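Sanity check

After download, print the first record. It should look like this:
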Amino acid sequence: MPPTITAFENSPDRGRGQARDMRVRWAFEEVGQPYDVHLVSFAEMKAPAHRARHPFGQIPTYEDGDLTLFESGAIVLHIAERHDGLLPKDANARARAIAWMFAALSTAEPPIVELTMAMLFERDRNWYAERLPMLQERVRVRLGELSRHIGGADWLDGAFSAGDLMMVTVLRRLNTSGLVDEYPEIAAYVARGEARPAFKRAFDAQLAVFRAASQS
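Expected C-alpha cells:
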C-alpha cells in the first residue's frame, strides 16, 4: 500500500497550488513514488479522527503503516531521506540542503505568510494601509538577501534539492503580491521550479481536486 496524505476537500486557494499538500505531492513526484490522497473537509479537519493525525487540525498529514507524520517540512524530509532525488549523496551537501529546507520554513515563510494573510483578511481594517508597507518591507528584506545568494545560479546549492522544493513553494505564496517581480533572479528561480515536470504533475493533481469540488 502506498502512503496516504491528507488534503483539502475544497481548497481555499481555488486551485492555485498554494495549499501545503502541494509540497508533499511535489516531493512524491520528484522521487517517482506513488501515493494516495484522503480529502478532508474543514469540519473533518477539526474532528477527533483527524486530530489524531494532526494535533492542530491542519493538512497535510502522512500515513504509512505504523508511521503518522504532520507538518509539510517533516513529511518532505522523510520522503527525501527514504528515496533518491531530493537530497545529495555528499554528506555536507545533504546537510546544506536540509538547512535550506529549514530556512524556507523558518526564515522566509513567516513574513510572507503575515503579508499574504493581511492582504486576504485585513483590507477592511482602518490600519491596513499603514501596516501594509511595513509588512512588504519585511518581505523585501528577505527577497533581497535570497536574491543576492542565488545570483546567477539555477538552484540554492548546486543541484535541485528538497531545499529548493520548499523554498519555491514558499515564494509562490507571493504570486498575487507583485513583490517577486521586483527581483529578477528570484522570479527566474521560481519559474525554473514551476517548469519541472514533477511540479506540473503535482500542480495538476491538486488543481483536479478543486475542479471536481467546484463542479459538485
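If your output differs, re-run the checksum step. Summary of this record's structure: The chain has two domains: 4-85+198-215, 91-196.
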